[in-house]
Amino acid sequence: MIYKSVAALSRSLVSRSGFVRNMSESGRFNVYITRSDMPDVGVDQLRKECDVKLWEKPSPVPRAEFLKSVAGANAIYCSLSDRIDKELLDAAGPGLKVVSTISVGYDHIDVQECRKRGIKIGYTPDVLTDATAELTLALLLSTSRRLPEAQHEARTGGWVSWAPTWMTGPGLAGSTVGIVGFGRIGQAVARRVKAFNTARILYFNRSERPEAKEIGAEKVGFDELLGQSDFVICCAALVPETKEVFNKSAFDKMKNTAVFVNTSRGGTVDQDALIEALKTNQIRAAGLDVTTPEPLPLDSPLFKLKNCVVLPHIGSASIEARNTMSELTAQNILAALNGKDLPAELK
Ligand SMILES: O=C(O)C(=O)CO
C-alpha cells in the first residue's frame, strides 16, 4: 500500500479515538503510542511529523483502552507488553500501515495477520545486542557467585567473618558454556564469555553459524549441550519450536552443578519444571531476566528460592540502547508512512 492510498483510507475513517480524522485537513498521519514513558528522543521525532496520541500513563495501556484508542491509527508504536493480534488490528481499522515495536522480540505480534493485511512490522535488532549481552553476563555472574544472596547477608548481619567456604559458587574460568540460540545476542554473549578463559563454548542453533568459527564456538546437539555445559544460557527467540524447550526432560539432562540463565523469553521454559529442578537441586541455580508471566507474581516460588535470581526483564535497559531503540522505532514508523524502506523491518 502506498502513501496516497493510506491517505485516502484515512480520510474515510470514522475515528472513535479522537485522532484527527481527515488527513487532507491535517496533512499528518496518526500514530498511537502504548505508554507515556517511551524515551523522548523517538517520540519527539514522531511529533514533528505526525499527530501522536499516547496512553497517558507510564504503564502498558489496558487492553480495553487500547482497543478503543487505536481506532484510526496509521501507525502503532508498541512494546513487548502489548498484544498485537487480529482483534487489535481490526480495532485499528484499514488505515493501519505499520506496527513498530521497541523490542527485538516479536512474539507479541501476530506476524501472519499483519502480513495478510499488508501491515509492515518494524522492530529493533542490533541496537540492543551489546546491552542484552552485558546484562546476560551480569546475571550469569550474579547467579553463579550469588551476589544478591551475599548482599542480603552483608546487610542483615550474616557476615560474621571472612569464611573459606561461605558464599562460594562456580567460576567461569575453565568451564564449558552452552548457548542455546546463536543469533546476534547469543554470539555477543559468547564473545564476552570467552574473555573469562572458558574451556569450551558450545552452541545449539537451527542452522550452523559461520561466525562461530572465529568465536571458537562448537555446534552441538541440544542434548549434548545440556549434558556437557556448566553454564546453560538461553538466547533463543520464542517461536513455536522453542516453546518450553527447557522442560523437565531438559533439566534432567543437565549437570547437577549447572547454572541456567535465561535472557530471551519466559516462554522458552516450563517454569514449574524449573522450580522443581531448583528445589530438588537437579541443577545448581538459575538466573532469569524473563519469566511467565511478567511481571512475576510476588507469591511465585521462584522468589523464595535462594538459588534463583530474578530480574524484571531489563536485558536491553542501558540508557544508550533504550534511546537508540526509541529512535529506531520512530524511524521505522516514519519510513513506512512515507512509503520508504524501513531501517529495520521484520521480513
Ligand atoms: O527487545 C526485546 O525483545 C527485549 O526483550 C528487550 O529486553
Automatic annotation (TrEMBL):
Annotated ranges, domain D-isomer specific 2-hydroxyacid dehydrogenase catalytic: 38-345
PROSITE patterns in the cross-refs: D_2_HYDROXYACID_DH_1
Domain D-isomer specific 2-hydroxyacid dehydrogenase NAD-binding: 137-315
First and last residue of the signal peptide: none
Transmembrane segments: none
SUPFAM superfamilies: Formate/glycerate dehydrogenase catalytic domain-like, NAD(P)-binding Rossmann-fold domains
UniProt xrefs under InterPro entries: D-isomer_2-hydroxyacid_DH (IPR050223), D-isomer_2_OHA_DH_cat_dom (IPR006139), D-isomer_DH_CS1 (IPR029752), D-isomer_DH_NAD-bd (IPR006140), NAD(P)-bd_dom_sf (IPR036291)
Keyword field contains Oxidoreductase: yes
Keywords on record: Oxidoreductase
PANTHER family: 2-HYDROXYACID DEHYDROGENASE-RELATED, GLYOXYLATE REDUCTASE_HYDROXYPYRUVATE REDUCTASE
Family recorded in the similarity comment: Belongs to the D-isomer specific 2-hydroxyacid dehydrogenase family.
Name of the featured protein: Glyoxylate reductase/hydroxypyruvate reductase
Organism: Loxostege sticticalis
